[in-house]
Amino acid sequence: MMTHNKGQILKGRVIEYNPACQKGILKAADTVVDFTLTKKTAIPLGTLVILQGKQLIDGFQAEKITKLKEPEINFETWWNENSKNWQKGVTDTARVKLIKQKAALMQATRDFFIKKNFTEVSTPLLNSIPGMEPFLDPVKTAEGWLITSPEYNIKKLLATGVGDVFEITKSFRGHEENSPYHNAEFTLLEWYRSFADYRQVVDDLELLTIALNQSLGHGTELIYNQVAIDLKTPWPRLKVNDAYKKWAHLDLNACQTVARFKRAIKNAKLNISVDKINDWNDLFYSVFLNYIEPKFPKNKPLIIYDYPLPQGALAKRKSKNNFWTERFECYLGGIEIGNCFSELTNGQEQQARFEEEQKIRRKIGKEVFPLDNDLIEALKIGLPPTSGIAVGLDRLFMLLLGLSDLREYLDFPTSQV
């Protein structure tokens, strides 16, 4: 160890401090020192301090200061790369500003729906029966399953005749990749309009997004990744089948069986190996993710709507025995932010679809869950014509605030807790 030059002035941050023994380590741009304080004093990690002789300016008195080693790193770089998001907030005013902006957006979201006479509801995170979707992995706890969405329970409340409702809640998905747009725990906003279909919910979504953007002091233009996104209404709309025709040269009306879908992909000479794919939805996603979604515009929102029945889960058909369902997804800057259904309210058909999803889960080797009979009963009691949407609120706020990575946006991303 080398003795610190007592005449030297160091400016750095506290990266370790043990109040019990009053010892800590200070990292500056060109040196690393440890220190021992003469009295017990709270110094939050990350505190920016100036050391002159034995004085840690702002009142900290050090009795022993030792230079540990010649540093090989830039401290600010080290701090940004190694501190957790909440720790950055200790010294970074931009981080604190972000926390407050998110809170303001959350309040503005609630205000938007309260002004429209929606009722805010609260449903449980922990349930005995999880979501049934074949391609989702619910998270199991000792007491039950964490929700993948509050939809099942909200629909039970709709059967009481409560009217238009919204909920802001946490949801969870297992095996979710840690990526710029995914986190295992995320915030969902869901709202349900009675005596409405998916067209009215598009209107809600447009107005909500503009209202939130304006609450940040902007107008109808959102800047994201240096691209100006025009939010003026009505947002562009495109049917799913038209997107497949346009970018993959496939007509899904002629692809309603696995065999026909495979043959059409081969005839269209798409670069997709279909021989080992035996599920219709896998074929759909293979084309969608490789040929459709990458083509979505970055400078405007896009409503892509009318999904085929295997993608309709909880959506009603456009008409009896129709292959198409009333579902839309919304993309903003090419990023999916919401998924909406004109809700299926026929209990008998919903039970049949759940049973089909059980077969798919069994076929692909996933745990098969029992039917949520309370939801079936609620549908049999009767729901009015209803449309509902789930919006990934973390993603939407991230976009509005001009951030491009949830791992930066979240105060506690899964990788840091």
Helix and strand layout, with pairings?
Blueprint: E1 2-3, E2 9-18, E3 23-28, E4 32-37, E5 48-52, E6 55-56, E7 60-69, H1 75-82, H2 85-91, H3 93-115, E8 119-120, E9 126-127, E10 139-141, E11 144-146, H4 151-158, E12 165-172, E13 185-194, H5 198-215, E14 221-224, E15 227-230, E16 237-239, H6 240-248, H7 258-267, H8 280-292, E17 302-308, E18 324-332, E19 335-342, H9 347-363, H10 373-381, E20 386-392, H11 393-400, H12 406-409
Parallel strand pairs: 8-12, 16-17
Antiparallel strand pairs: 1-7, 2-3, 2-5, 3-4, 4-7, 5-6, 6-7, 9-11, 10-11, 12-13, 13-20, 14-15, 17-18, 18-19, 19-20
Structure description:
- There is one protein chain.
- The protein is of the alpha+beta class.
- The protein has helices at residues 75-82, 85-91, 93-115, 151-158, 198-215, 240-248, 258-267, 280-292, 347-363, 373-381, 393-400, 406-409; strands at 2-3, 9-18, 23-28, 32-37, 48-52, 55-56, 60-69, 119-120, 126-127, 139-141, 144-146, 165-172, 185-194, 221-224, 227-230, 237-239, 302-308, 324-332, 335-342, 386-392.
- The strands form 4 sheets. It has an 8-stranded mixed beta sheet with strand order 8-12-13-20-19-18-17-16, sandwiched between helices. A 6-stranded antiparallel barrel has the order 2-3-4-7-6-5.
- Helix 3 packs across helix 5 (198-215), helix 6 (240-248) crosses helix 8 (280-292) and helix 9 (347-363) runs antiparallel to helix 10 (373-381).
- The longest helix has 23 residues, at 93-115.
- The radius of gyration is 27 Å and the shape is elongated.
